[in-house]
Amino acid sequence: MSWGRLAAVGAAVLVVAVVAFLMYRTGTDLLDVRTAVKAAGLWAPVLFVLLQGMVTVVPVPRTVFTVAAGVLFGGLGGVLLAVAGTALAATVAFWLVRLLGGRFVRKHADHRVMTWVRVRLDRSGLLAMVSLRLIPAVPFSAMNYAAALSGIRFSPYLLGTVLGVLPGTIGIVILGDAAVGGDPHPAMLLVSVTSGLVGLTGALIAARRPAVPPVAEG
After folding, report:
1. Where in the sequence is the domain holding 8, given as residue range(s)?
2. From the CB of residue 4, how many other CB atoms can be counted at a distance below 10 Å?
3. Checking phi first, is residue 177 left (phi over 0); if not, alpha (psi -120 to 50) or beta?
4. Is the separation of the CB atoms in 161 and 138 below 8 Å?
5. How many CA atoms lie within 13 A of 209 on its CB side?
6. With 84 labelled, which of 2, 67, 76, 161 sits at a CA distance of 20 to 30 A?
């Protein structure tokens, strides 16, 4: 089993273990778990954001934390915290690769997927970032690494990340909130599905456009 898969399993076990512990301490009702988290005050959301930000730097699915955000913090709070954790992970991954990733760059710079993403980010950073982040099938961590290897500036990278993950995050958090007895509006789920289709369309258009050849240095 690869290190990425081990990390993903470890993260899932960790989140489930925390929720199970809270359920054991407060009863089997998820609503009681949310009440216990709320009673913890500021520490609970801060620790959640830090945990998601650190764990999802490696290839760990964000979905585990996104669902947990809805379960533990409700609709609005869950969305804000899940996006904050995502932004933190994207920031850490970006600068780790940029500042310390020499070996990583040499190993992955010519990978087919990395090259495809880098060319599009070099040409239209913000638009490409938003479009690719909207597609649920594009791995979050792989996009972070590819962006760091490209010429995109940090500000459009981070803004595109937040805008791109927001619709899908809303849809998943709403599902987590519903598990605790929330009353999500069906339009929120429609936003998530629509955003994925829009992002896929944008990515297909970008893929059909010819890559801009590098300018020869003279």
Report:
1. 3-208
2. 13
3. alpha
4. no
5. 17
6. 2
Q: Does 216 fall in a domain?
A: no
Does residue 168 lie in a domain region? Answer: yes
- The pLDDT tens digits of the residues spanning 150-190 come to 878 899 999 999 988 888 888 888 877 877 766 666 766 67
CB 91 within 8 A of CB 158: yes
Contacting residues for 128 by C-beta, under 8 A, at least 6 apart: 120, 121, 160, 202, 206
Query: Domain total for the chain?
Result: 1
> Are residues 48 and 73 in contact, defined by beta-carbon separation less than 8 angstroms?
yes
CA distance 8 to 12: 6
The structure's pTM equals 0.73
Determine the length of the chain.
218
Q: Cβ of 183: how many Cβ atoms within 10 Å?
A: 8
Pair 149, 115: CB distance under 8 Å:
no
Residue 80 phi/psi, 5-degree rounding, is: -60, -45
The answer to whether residues 60 and 47 touch, using CB atoms and an 8 Å cutoff, is no
* Paired tokens of 31: 């609503």
Structure tokens at 179: 């598990």
Instruction: Establish if 215 belongs to a structural domain.
Output: no
Instruction: Classify residue 218: in a domain, yes or no.
Output: no
